[in-house]
Amino acid sequence: MVNRNSKKMYAGFVGILAVSFLFAFLSVSYASQDELDKVKNDIWTKGKRWVAEETEVSKLPDHERKMRLGLLKPLAASPVAETAETPPSEPLTGSPPPGFDWRNFNGINYVTGVRNQGNCGSCWAFATTAALESNLIISSGANTDLSEQILVSCGNAGSCSGGYPTTASSFIRDTGLAAESYYPYTTTNGNCAYALAGWQNATSRITSWHYVGNTTSPTLDQIKSELVTYGPLVTTFDVYSDFYYYGGGVYQQTSGTYQGGHAVLIVGYDDVGQYFIVKNSWGGGWGESGYFRIGYSELDSIVNFGDWSLAYYTDATPPGITVATPNGGDSWAAGTTKTIQWNYTGAPGTSVKIELYKDGKIVQTITSSASIGSGGSGSYSWNIPQTLAAGNLYQIMVTSNQNNSYSDVSDGYFTISAYVPPTITLTCLNSAGITWKRNTTQQITWAYTGSPGAYVKIDLLKGGAVVKTIASKASITPGYYNWKVPSKQAVGNDYKIRITSTTSSAFTDTSDSAFTIN
Question: Catalytic residue at 160?
Fold first, then answer.
């Protein structure tokens, strides 16, 4: 039996606890609001170009905010900083383009979805994993969600208390990461033994990684050049408390206290707006759908944006398809058979779809599935419909059936001329009084229009009946055939020659007049 005094004491304790929680919550809320008001005021007075607002991260207690970071700078771990490699190729020569975004390069998105590291200082794992995912799309077309938890639990590069992007990059190079399903993210340090068996045999890797510009503090042009050359870049910066309130625009540090280092992924830039486009790991509800823009100015501010930037490289040939024929200027005729040709690199798929366009609009699907080919090239024999309208604004598009990102269209327009019915016409023995002597060589000649076929059959007729096949399969293209009249050929004055396409007996002609053999 519980006495009444015990119940009162318990109720009092619960009440005090509830009041304490409420007081703590209100304290955090008021502190957060005061901080937000100051950030907004500083943005206004300093003329910055970004919007501050309460965010999912800014609402958190201070110690949980800092757990959204987690960078351990390579400078503090010199042994792992030495594993960088010499860039395998020269970065982009000349001036980089005025704007670039790997989320929309030639209409293709090479950046995977925004992730959320949660209450774990694993930004270093998310940034490097995101770089590998983008590198795979660029090099092989594989769009894969890879396991950050394998990096946290097995990579020996860090933990939820922070980690080194350089060591993580070496692990990605030497061991690689398996798909998310092998070890889903747990927001904890985890244990490598909990990963699915066999993950080491199902990993994706990079060939090498290196510091951007071979320096710890690359220049603007070095970052832009290597971003365009190699793909999205892992980078770092120092976070101040105003950054938690980022809601949009071009971030420039305005106020607040130093919170720690953070690793993120640069995916693009814009010279007109003077900013980088960056993928964060705080979920899609923060910032600009999980991204933020940061001014070029922060390369040289206390934020130190861009320090320790890393580029990934894979020597696999990027997949691609290029139309070779027709590619502009060709002239094909309706009713004929022509060969569409293309070249490919890497592994864009096993089959392609071929479509006909006219003035930028699809006319027909020539074939929904043709083999990709072999050895880097493929072809398809197209029987051009006789009913296809004549015109000079035609193009061919070839697209992978396995990944429609790999596609190409003729560089220029080609012409299709109107259908001309095929004909074959003998151009010899068409007048009366011609005599061919036995044991002499005579030339049988003909002309043709359209595409009656590649070969012809030549018959000798006497009195309207076939008495001899002179040639069962003669090439149509020379337009003639040399026939040695047999020495024992019966004499007569009622001979004729008939020529017929071996493709279709409808294409035939017989000499207009009889001739004599004597």
Answer: no
